[in-house]
Amino acid sequence: MHPEDQMAMSLLVFILLFVLCFVIYKYEPRTIFLGLVMILVAIQSVVMFLIFNFNNLALIMGIILGILFLIIPVVLTIGFLSKHRKLFKCLIISLFVGIIISLLLYLNEINVIEILQLPLITWGIGYFVCGICLGILVVNSYLLSALMNLFSKEKPSVDYLIVLGAGLNKEKVTPLLAKRIDKAIQVYKEAPDLILIMSGGQGDDEMIPEGLAMANYAISQGVPKNHIIIEDQSVNTYENILFSSQHFASEDASFAIISTMYHLFRAELIAKKLGLKSVSYGAESGKKWVFNANAFIREFFAYLYMQLKWVVLFSILYTLLYSLLHYAVLMNAFPLPL
After folding, report:
1. Which CDD domains does this one have (predicted)?
2. Which whole-number Å values give the CA distances from 74 to 70, 262, 297, 316, in the listed order?
């Protein structure tokens, strides 16, 4: 292909990806594909600069993207392991075991290179590395989508605010839950006709339903009682939104979800799954970054559980396609450039 054709093709791909990103963001941003397409746009930008021979600029952009692509999962993993020290100890032990095995192989003069070239070993290493790369891509796509939904959307006027519960301290709301309610009150003060739906059932270790405790707190902060609806039957985010929507005066009522920032995107995805149009307002957690990173990891795994059938299907397809490619390479049907 001539250089001119490469330039034209690269520019066309960039424009198509950019338009696709804009369309997704404009019409239905509640999807992980928004973040994925944004990453593809960034990668295509680097490719385009390389084709146009802007090598230095492409190198700088590539380094920045590479750092962001890798640093985010690393930071999240550190935060997660900091809250799960037993798992951290297991990983450290596994690392030392791996080092000891490597030393034993070296001291016994075993040809490690020949071992690594065994078909089953090469399959396993490649499968693991490619899987890690895909996992990093999915994590970054989820995070970008969450950020775009959180910070960049205009908030139209709504009829209801659904405030999601988050546990109690005896009969009182926790500081985390209080920040959610404070955010709802802030929005309410800008539009005093709003109805606040306080959503949360009663856990086994709670003296009263979360919805009731949330309502008591809001009333103590000056919200009129007749502007509050209590939903006290839900036990998870799915039920929070489903049961709260049953209190709407009409089917076409509009609403906003209020929760902590790390939790908000999954709540929006649940609303989408229920066929409900929603916007959202994020509340600060008031916690350190380690807590937020750990919470985000939990939210991400909860998202994967939401999409379990697709995760299983993708894992099967990935295994089959990778195995076929690996077999083709071994048979020299599709030699890799070295």
Report:
1. YdcF-like
2. 6, 17, 11, 26
- For residue 336, what is the DSSP state? P
Phi first, then psi, for residue 204 (nearest 5°) are: -65, -30
Whole-angstrom distance, CA of residue 126 vs CA of residue 133: 11
Contacts with 142 (C-beta within 8 Å, 6 or more apart), sequence order: 32, 35, 265, 300, 303
What structural domains does the chain harbor? Answer: 3-151 (no CATH), 160-288 (3.40.50.620)
Residue with tokens 């009182």: 172
C-beta neighbour count of 58 within 10 angstroms: 18
DSSP state of 208: S
Cα–Cα distance measured from residue 44 to residue 39, given in angstroms and rounded to the nearest whole number: 9
Tens of pLDDT, residue by residue over 103-130, are 555 555 555 455 555 666 777 777 888 8
Helices (H), the chain: 3-27, 33-51, 55-83, 85-107, 112-116, 119-151, 175-190, 210-220, 237-245, 261-273, 289-306, 308-330
For residues 145 and 29, the answer to whether their CB atoms sit within 8 Å is: yes
Note the pTM of the prediction, 2 decimals.
0.78
